[in-house]
Automatic annotation (TrEMBL):
GO terms for biological process: intracellular phosphate ion homeostasis; negative regulation of phosphate metabolic process; phosphate ion transport. Keywords: Cytoplasm, Phosphate transport, Transport. This is Phosphate-specific transport system accessory protein PhoU. NCBIfam families: phoU_full. InterPro entries: PhoU (IPR028366), PhoU-like_sf (IPR038078), PhoU_dom (IPR026022). Gene3D superfamilies: Phosphate transport system protein phou homolog 2, domain 2. It comes from the Bacteria. Residues 20-108, 124-209 form the PhoU domain. It comes from Yoonia algicola. One of its GO terms (cellular component) is cytoplasm. The keyword ATP-binding does not apply. Belongs to the PhoU family. Homodimer. The gene is phoU.
Length: 235
């Protein structure tokens, strides 16, 4: 790529990176607001999260269009092409995380009509804060080209899985103790699962950052802590 084209490519990539960071900021905010709407029983905030997802979706489309235009005009190769493919994958994961935040907000509108389940709100908020911190670090790692920070995020997904396991067992216990808890606990379980999936997607993003920086995907299988498939009782 000659110097003139290279400079144009750099400007294009800088613009797309700005869009990724804007999208990431909106997704971080959606995660925290979605859980806050549950803990505060705030249906207006839940509706705000649902409406905000349209802006997240629009940013993904804009990023896809800008990346496609840059590939067509600059014909990048090697790491330049890898950079553009990475932003496409990051944008796709962010869009899915935004969808999970919207799903949580939808269930909040149902749960506000039911009695709270003791301790669950605090546990969900703690889990969401951990995922939001992982996402923030992943975006920082992307901007700084920091594979070490991205690997740290990858390892932290196991903590989110363990939080999910603990919540899963608590919900089983509550449902066994009182059948009236079944409906709210099912909604809360799906919320916890949404947050656990956000952690998985954030970890996928961290792996893409590692690939962008080093040219290789991590060799070792990702440490997983979700053991709910093997739970046979709530004890």
């Amino acid at each position: 790529m000659n110097e003139h084209i290279s400079s144009a490519y750099d400007r294009d990539l800088e613009g797309i990176t700005t869009l990724i960071m804007k999208m990431g900021g909106q997704v971080e905010e959606a995660i925290l607001k979605a859980v806050k709407s549950l803990t505060d029983r705030d249906t207006e905030l839940a509706e705000e999260v649902r409406e905000g997802d349209k802006s997240i979706d629009a940013l993904e489309i804009q990023i896809n269009d800008e990346a496609a235009r840059t590939i067509a005009l600059r014909a990048p190769v090697s790491k330049d092409l890898r950079s553009l493919l990475t932003v496409l994958r990051l944008a796709a994961s962010l869009e899915r995380i935004g969808d999970y935040a919207k799903n949580i907000a939808k269930r909040t509108s149902v749960l506000v009509e039911m009695n709270p389940v003791s301790g669950s709100d605090v546990a969900l908020r703690r889990m969401a804060r951990e995922v939001e911190a992982m996402l923030k670090d992943t975006l920082d790692a992307y901007v700084r080209g920091d594979a070490e920070l991205a690997e740290d995020v990858r390892q932290r997904d196991q903590e989110v899985d363990q939080m999910y396991n603990a919540l899963f067992r608590e919900f089983l216990t509550f449902m066994m103790e009182d059948p009236r808890n079944i409906t709210p606990c099912m909604h809360l379980h799906f919320m916890a699962k949404n947050i656990e999936r956000m952690g998985d997607l954030t970890t996928n993003m961290a792996e893409q950052v590692i690939y962008l920086v080093t040219g290789d995907m991590p060799d070792e299988a990702r440490p997983k802590g979700d053991k709910t498939a093997y739970v046979t009782d709530a004890g």
